[in-house]
Amino acid sequence: MPDTWAKRAPLTGIVAVVLLIASFAIGSDTPEFDASGREVIDFYVDNEGAQFAASLLEALAALFLLFFAGTLRSALRRSEGGTGGLSAIALAGGIVQAVGLLSFAGFSFTLADVGDKLEPGAAQALNALDGDFFFMIAVGTAALLLAAGVSMLRSGAFPKWLAWIAIVLGVLSVTPAGFFVFLAYGIWV
């Protein structure tokens, strides 16, 4: 059984990406961050079921991302040697990403669950957070990719091209191109 898990564990990253894509597909077209409170409330009341589903899929994606990050850490640690600092940073980056995804899921779920009970200003504030609360995901992505990329280069246990892609994406993830980098990160995973 352990050998089976070791062979299949990297697939948790693919599951996370698929769940995240499904979440985006179901829950997209939310109000812009500057929408009025009334527009936000109306949207979430009218789209309650889709937003619940999208939030739950995003939360599940975060769970599978944690398993992927743990699996990546193990693979990096085996080849890294020494204290395993880079593999630990990669794992920490995955944890930060998961917390960011769970935050987004929580904002959307809250708006769908109690949107009709919120004051317009509160709904507008939650919607703004749901639209712009990306720093955790950007920093988590940067930490995971940079640490994994450097570890891969040092150990030679992974293809060099994969390491260089990780490093380039890691650097770009904290720039204005971050959203597009996050999409490319899904392919890297």
Structure, explained:
With 189 residues, the chain is mostly helical. Helices cover 82% and strands 0% of the residues. It is built from nine helices and no strands. It has helices at 2-8, 11-27, 37-46, 48-80, 85-114, 120-132, 135-155, 160-172, 178-188. Helix 3 packs across helix 5 (85-114), helix 5 runs antiparallel to helix 7 and helix 8 runs antiparallel to helix 9. The relative contact order is 0.14.
Tell me which oligomeric state these chains represent: single chain
In which range does the helix fraction lie? over 70%
The helix-and-strand class reads mainly alpha
Distance between the termini: 24 Å
- Total beta strand runs: 0
For the largest beta-sheet, the strand count, sense and barrel status come to: none
Coarse shape = elongated
**How many individual helices?**
9
Order of helices and strands: HHHHHHHHH
Output the radius of gyration: 18 Å
How much strand content do the residues show? under 5%
- As residue ranges, the low-confidence spans are none
Q: Report the mean per-residue pLDDT as an integer.
A: 93
